[in-house]
Amino acid sequence: MTSTISPPSGPAQQNGRRDPESPGGRGTGPVTRPRREWRSKLGALDVKASPYLYIAPFFILFALVGLFPLVYTFVVSINDWDLLSGAGEWVGLQNYAIELKDPYFWNSLFNTFSIFMLSAIPQLIAATFIAAILDQNLRGKTFWRMGVLLPYVVTPVAVTLIFSSAFDEKYGLINNLLQMLNLDAIGWKSEVFPSHIAIASMVNWRWTGYNALILLAAMQAVPRDLHESASLDGAGSFRRFFSITLPSIRPTMIFVIITATVGGLQIFTEPKLFNPSSSTLGGPNREYQTTVLYLWDLAFNRGDFGKASAVAWLLFIIIIGVGLINFFISRSIASAGATSPGKTARAARRAANKNIQRSGHSPAAHDSKEHRR
Amino acid sequence: MSLKTAPTPQTQTTQVSAKRTRKRSLGIDKRPGFLTYGLLIAFFLGGAYPLWWSFVTGSASTGAFAGPLPPIFPGEAFLSNVAEVFSTIDFWAALGNSIAVSGVITISVVGFSTLAGYSFAKLRFRGKQGLLVFVIATLAVPTQLGIIPLFMMMKEFGWTGSIGAIMVPTLVTAFGVFFMRQYLVDVIPDELIEAARVDGASMIKTFWHVGVPAARPAMAILGLFTFMTAWTDYMWPLLVSPQNPTLQVALSQLQSAKYVDHTIVMAGAVMATIPLLLLFVLAGKQLVSGIMAGAVKG
């Protein structure tokens, strides 16, 4: 069986090569058998091994440069490891204990979460709002979509240079504006909360449009007849937005939130470059020193690889933990909230079906073209 | 709610026409009004203004900063500011490094992701489900946190200071594999692969003649985003190769050298943004559709 089915031997037979067994064709000929078996074995090997060969480069490289360093970070973290002198004594979990008592570590965590909240929440709201505006029958759709994406092509380093200059305490655009309005200048680079707002504004400026497009894609995937039948039932555009659009895009929102968490908790570039004149990383008194910045300072300025690795692992656990919490919270919100909007949606769909059946002719074919604009 | 509009049999025909007109008047597909366009213009200006402002600042002579507000229109000093940028950092070498690093990473990620994604999407093999779950799980793993051992490795190999060291950690991504898998699983009919196999094509030939042509649109999108990500990366290039910098690192070095002189720093920021602005003008449509496609798939 295998010898006739296996593809590589197929064309050889079709090409009319002399084959004594070809009418019966079950591969019993003593002359051709070794050759064909060899070919079929090769073919079988091809079929069996190829899938693994194709995924191998990814897994090997990923193991070497992705997973191994992460695991080895743990090994470094349980040693008294130094940048210059290399691996020191085994110290167990002592580095973790020290870091968990270090106020600078907690300060960095506070800053990270504060900046994260200040960027994630307004950004999500703004992105949903922008997406809802874009999710209309606009003229020049592509132009507006590209328009909201513009900040995304400015690199974080350039964004930080621009905003750092704008937030300059003495000569910056924003304090100048404030003073023109007879308000007090704000210590954007020397006070905790203002500096967090300034850094969050950089993140928001660059990413809101990007996330709006993701949410827009989800909104456009909502079936049009759902909107149509709800509108037939007298639901205005606001009602439809809250009862149909929002519940439908929840999975995408979860996706956006989780991506934002993993990225946001590792924020580095913005606080690193926010104030180049500060000798301490993350502000004169560590006002906006995030955890990755703290890790960087520990490892590459103070050379304490052991403690820095412990911080890396603590942050790793926190990121995974927050990601999971986000996931479960948003999932339970989704299932709890699904009852009422789900009912509305179902009722709307039923009503739509009824209308179609009653009216005899089916607008469905016409409608389905309008599902996607 | 549905009771209100439920038609009685007698009024069937009127109901249909009423539905048509109401559909128009209730406005699912109504053209939006001025408010919408006004808001969109406001968003657009908000997005563009910081860029414009950086150009205005970057083209001002240092003295122009004496006023309470920066000028609204660009000054004449842009070229002299740019000359100052060029004398402070080796802009062209950094640009070359960025192109080389992002180019190699893009080719590697797209190539290996297509290969692995095709395998996951269309080939049968033992352990496929488990390995795929592994790939998906690693999507959320912050591998960036492994920089300390990675740095030690690069030092051990003597690679620090070379652009090769910048490339190594991102030659493959779990996202790329997952993205290609999601795309290919729908887009290639199994029959097509079987047909190629029956015609006697080997596995790799089937991949090349069936898989790759089908994957091309997704490869372009993945390539675009991989290039962007590699281009914007800052932390790892800064750590491993500050003496042979990419554009982003060079730009940050300009900032630490000239932080008192905003005009020069802004001129540098503008210069460094131009390449991606060009990319945006040329491929902005693809970026938009890529983000929107990725959202539905992911």
TrEMBL record, chain A:
Residues 1-34, 337-373 are annotated as: Disordered. This is Binding-protein-dependent transporters inner membrane component. Residues 109-326 form the ABC transmembrane type-1 domain. Residues 1-15 have a biased composition (Polar residues). GO terms for biological process: transmembrane transport. PANTHER family: ABC TRANSPORTER PERMEASE PROTEIN, INNER MEMBRANE ABC TRANSPORTER PERMEASE PROTEIN YCJO. It is found in: Cell membrane. GO terms for cellular component: plasma membrane. PROSITE patterns: ABC_TM1. It is a multi-pass membrane protein. Keywords: Cell membrane, Membrane, Transmembrane, Transmembrane helix, Transport.
TrEMBL record, chain B:
The chain crosses the membrane at residues 34-52, 91-118, 130-151, 157-179, 218-239, 259-282. Its main location: membrane. Residues 1-23 are annotated as: Disordered. InterPro entries: MetI-like, MetI-like_sf. One of its GO terms (biological process) is transmembrane transport. CDD domains: TM_PBP2. It is a multi-pass membrane protein. This is Binding-protein-dependent transporters inner membrane component. It comes from Paeniglutamicibacter gangotriensis Lz1y. The lineage of its organism: Bacteria, Bacillati, Actinomycetota, Actinomycetes, Micrococcales.
